[in-house]
Specification:
The complex is a heterodimer of chains A (479) and B (238).
Chain A: E1 3-9, E2 17-23, E3 29-36, H1 42-45, H2 54-59, H3 66-81, H4 87-119, H5 130-136, H6 138-159, E4 168-169, E5 172-173, H7 179-208, H8 212-217, E6 224-229, E7 241-245, E8 251-256, H9 261-264, E9 265-268, E10 277-280, E11 290-291, H10 294-300, H11 307-320, H12 330-349, E12 369-376, E13 379-387, E14 393-399, H13 401-404, H14 406-420, H15 432-443, H16 449-452, E15 461-467, E16 472-478
Parallel strand pairs in A: 1-16, 2-15, 6-11
Antiparallel strand pairs in A: 1-15, 2-3, 4-5, 6-7, 7-8, 9-10, 12-13, 13-14, 15-16
Helix pairs in contact in A: 4-5, 4-6, 4-12, 5-6, 6-7, 7-12, 11-12, 14-15
Chain B: E1 3-8, E2 11-16, H1 21-27, E3 51-54, E4 60-62, E5 73-75, H2 79-95, H3 110-117, E6 134-135, E7 141-144, H4 153-162, E8 167-170, E9 177-180, H5 197-201, E10 207-209, H6 221-233
Parallel strand pairs in B: 1-5
Antiparallel strand pairs in B: 1-2, 3-4, 3-5, 6-7, 7-10, 8-9
The chains are: A alpha+beta (479), B alpha+beta (238).
Chain lengths: 479, 238
């Protein structure tokens, strides 16, 4: 008799989800599904609103990365105005996005994932969290929390609040960085560099030791990778163009414009999840599976363009002999991106433009359809609006990073379940540590389900074990 | 000049006959919350925020239109009034679509300020989520009926100060709304002089400058005060 294991809700991710593991007659894992069980309907209720409100509205999708929506909405608004934003505004937007990536990656690594690495997959689940980390390694925990604070405070220095700062607007931004803010950033940079160095050294030591196996099991498979790259192929998070590479590092498509996303991206729907399944259209569904986010950005770029981050990028690529296909190395990629962000912040904070008062272009409704793109911490984010002659929204399409990793997350969950769950029979207890590994496979992608379903709800974990006859044989809940 | 003497919240007040209780309270520095009232415009007692109790009757009276009387004993802040005021603001929130977080007038809104003042953290009444329109047809300004509380300040300022009478009140009950011209899109109303006084008078984010985003609403209330003072006292400096 076959059965299904359900993990519901999945914990330490942003959003609400469950995992179903389907067993065959022999009790081996036949398949696994990552269900997103939230629904919010942002695309619908934005209809009829002025496009100038979209940055403020869509930023409310999420409290973790509102900046990403703010920037994508503002960039889409720039195109509706048909204006070029002032150079200072672009640099300031970049500064905020770098701060956002830093704080979000710090949250993912230190608060959400490091308890697994440092306390152990099988450790007491009641302590396997950031509070357990504070008990076990208070210095590291404090440093991680302060690194996140560094990013959050830059966002506040620019937008007057840490979360949901409606500061980026169509045409530019509202205000520049103050001299006091500039000084604060400069003063705090050395500590932030030291923290990410500490985390990188620690994580590399773990990769060479106790975490070696995870590299081959946690979502190690070929797929396409997509991300923004700069004009010369350098790492990019705000402008540039889109690029696809395959697992061999071969360029599949380059110099793609977000304006044409519908020609190369399709969105499939499955009845068991509210999260859509985007795919690379020329390769069809589901063969067009691609990954986005930190690992994808590091795979698609030629280089980062900053000395320290480039050295780490080389180390990452050396470990994988080129393109990195293990989803477990998203964690390493995240740390490298924090380093890259800090180096870019260091360069930007000394730029005279960031305190310039020429930060906003004005215009009317000069384009009735526009598509904006930016790199959110979790991957590429598209906003697509159609407006009427007065600028009222007629339709909205949001393509969120986590959605684009949906196929890869399902594949990762299946791979981990197949590795760790064997011979499960009716009534048998699945060890919690095994289920934690399945969850951790999802956490590699640091998914943000609130954003990706644009959905409501809390964020706990539910795993179900479903037998061959479809009956739930075992399940585990965690709040 | 005939003077009337009365007590407001146990404070003796003497004021010219014909004055309103609101004016008398202001004279004595006794705060009474208002929403539809705007100094210089004809009071209409639409919002009912300024209701007060007068000894000798169980009826409540709107302070903005009720004349003072000799020997009146007025209470402005009893538990009964506090309860009604709170309910009144809750009903305003439940009746329209007021989403402060993304509103152009966030942190710069008289309705929001009043909600804080009367201690509202939620509405006890079910939100109606009415389907209302936004008119962005005017080249400079927009009106979002979702945020309108029907205070009619725009109607009065346009008629009484600008003399254009672009705005009026249409229909009744839950269908009641502010309308422009002969029920035309605002941008097509030739009477509009684009003076922006309605934007300055609007207490919420219902009428705004186009292009303003969350919390960016600018309103020049001093301009209105200056115009009204100039008209009344012939003082043309600001």
């Amino acid at each position: 008799m076959t059965k299904t294991i359900v993990i519901d809700p999945v914990t330490r991710i942003e959003g609400h989800a469950k995992i179903s593991i389907f067993l065959d007659e022999a009790g081996e894992v036949a398949d696994a599904q990552f269900h997103v069980v939230e629904y919010r309907g942002f695309e619908k209720f934005c209809e009829g609103r002025p496009f100038t409100e979209m940055a403020g509205i869509t930023a409310r999708i999420c409290g973790i990365c509102p900046v990403s929506h703010l920037l994508a909405a503002a960039k889409t608004g720039d195109k509706i105005l048909a204006v070029t934003i002032p150079p200072a505004a672009e640099k300031l937007r970049r500064l905020m996005n770098l701060a956002q990536i830093t704080q979000s990656h710090a949250l993912s690594f230190f608060h959400l994932s490091s308890p697994d690495f440092l306390l152990g997959w099988d450790s007491d689940p009641a302590k396997r969290n950031v509070f357990g980390l504070i008990d076990a390694n208070p210095d590291l925990a404090r440093a991680g929390i302060r690194l996140r604070q560094f990013g959050q405070t830059i966002i506040e220095l620019l937008g007057a609040r840490k979360i949901h700062a409606a500061w980026a607007v169509p045409g530019g931004v509202r205000s520049p960085l103050s001299e006091e803010g500039r000084t604060w950033i400069r003063d705090r940079l050395p500590e932030s560099f030291a923290t990410v160095r500490l985390a990188l050294d620690l994580f590399k030591t773990l990769l060479d030791g106790p975490l070696q196996d995870e590299i081959n099991v946690f979502g190690q498979f070929p797929s396409l990778f997509m991300g923004l790259v700069g004009t010369d192929g350098e790492w990019e998070h705000y402008g540039g163009h889109l690029r696809f590479v395959d697992s061999e590092g071969t360029l599949v498509a380059d110099r793609l414009s977000e304006d044409d996303y519908q020609t190369f991206l399709g969105e499939a729907v499955e009845p068991w999840s509210y999260l859509k399944f985007p795919y690379y259209k020329p390769w069809g569904y589901p063969d067009g599976i691609y990954r986005v986010g930190p690992l994808a950005r590091l795979n698609v770029c030629d280089r980062i363009g900053m000395a320290a981050a480039d050295a780490e990028l080389q180390n990452l690529r050396d470990r994988a002999n080129g393109t990195v296909t293990s989803s477990f190395l998203y964690h390493y990629a995240r740390l490298i991106e924090i380093l890259a962000c800090l180096e870019h912040i260091q360069a930007l904070v000394d730029d005279p433009d960031v305190v310039s008062s020429r930060v906003r272009s004005h215009g009317g409704v000069n384009q009735l359809e526009a598509i904006g793109v930016s790199e959110a911490p979790r991957g590429t984010l598209f906003h697509h609006y159609k407006v009427d002659d007065n600028g009222l929204i007629q339709s909205v399409n949001l393509i969120i990073a986590t959605g684009q990793n949906n196929l890869a997350m399902n594949k990762t969950v299946t791979q981990i379940a197949q590795e760790y769950i064997h011979g499960a029979t009716n009534g048998s207890e699945i060890p919690e540590g095994m289920l934690n590994r399945v969850e951790a496979g999802i956490r590699c992608f640091d998914p943000c389900l609130s954003c990706s379903t644009h959905a409501a709800g809390q964020m706990p974990l539910h795993i179900q074990l479903v037998g061959a006859d479809g009956a739930v044989v075992s399940e585990r809940y965690r709040d | 000049m005939t003077v009337k003497t009365l007590k407001i919240d146990d404070i003796d007040v003497a004021i010219a006959a014909g004055s309103t209780i609101l004016q008398a309270a202001q004279e004595a520095s006794i705060p009474i919350p208002t929403l539809c009232h705007l100094e210089g415009l004809t009071p209409v007692a639409a919002c009912r925020m300024c209701m007060v109790e007068i000894e000798g009757t169980s009826k409540l009276f709107p302070a903005c239109v009720t004349e003072v009387g000799e020997g009146m004993v007025v209470s402005t802040n009893t538990p009964k009034l506090q309860g009604y005021r709170r309910m009144n603001v809750e009903l305003l929130f439940a009746e329209g679509n007021h989403v402060c977080a993304i509103c152009v007038a966030n942190d710069n809104c008289e309705l929001q300020d009043l909600a804080v003042e009367v201690g509202i953290d939620h509405s006890r009444f079910p939100y109606q989520f009415p389907k209302r329109s936004i008119d962005l047809s005017h080249p400079q300004f927009g009106i979002d009926h979702n945020r309108c509380i029907l205070c009619t300040r725009c109607v009065r300022v346009c008629d009484e100060v600008e003399g254009a009478h672009v705005w009026d009140v249409a229909q009744r009950g839950s269908a009641c709304h502010i309308t422009s011209g002969m029920d035309q899109p605002w941008g097509e109303v030739s009477a509009c002089t684009s003076c922006g006084k309605c934007v300055d008078a609007c207490p919420t984010g219902a009428i705004f400058h186009k292009g303003e985003t969350t919390g960016e609403k600018q309103r020049d209330r001093e301009k209105l005060a200056f115009l009204m003072n100039a008209r009344e006292h012939q003082q043309w400096t600001r």
